[in-house]
């Protein structure tokens, strides 16, 4: 709860990373009760501000049905936008979507391309 208070103060001062951390807390239920609607709304605000991690998180929400219905096509578009901004987690998530054909045609070459991009930036799962 203390972390939430500190993140909220930082958010009020315009700290985007703090807002991102709060959204993740609501998804995971870390220090707060899970609240997918709040997580979705915060992620949406972050994405609208052009924050690549927010775009990735909003894509994750659409992919998993967190705070909204599952919409893999929207997830792919958001992952693509964030991946183009060099967000390594979005690059990894986009690779997964191509590998398994979720929200897009299955394309192993695109999957490999995005896994490589993610790995080049230090993503240990890629």
From TrEMBL:
It holds the Pfam family Sel1. InterPro entries: Mitotic_Regulator (IPR052945), Sel1-like (IPR006597), TPR-like_helical_dom_sf (IPR011990). It comes from the Eukaryota. SUPFAM superfamilies: HCP-like. This is HCP-like protein. It comes from Rhizophagus irregularis (strain DAOM 181602 / DAOM 197198 / MUCL 43194) (Arbuscular mycorrhizal fungus).
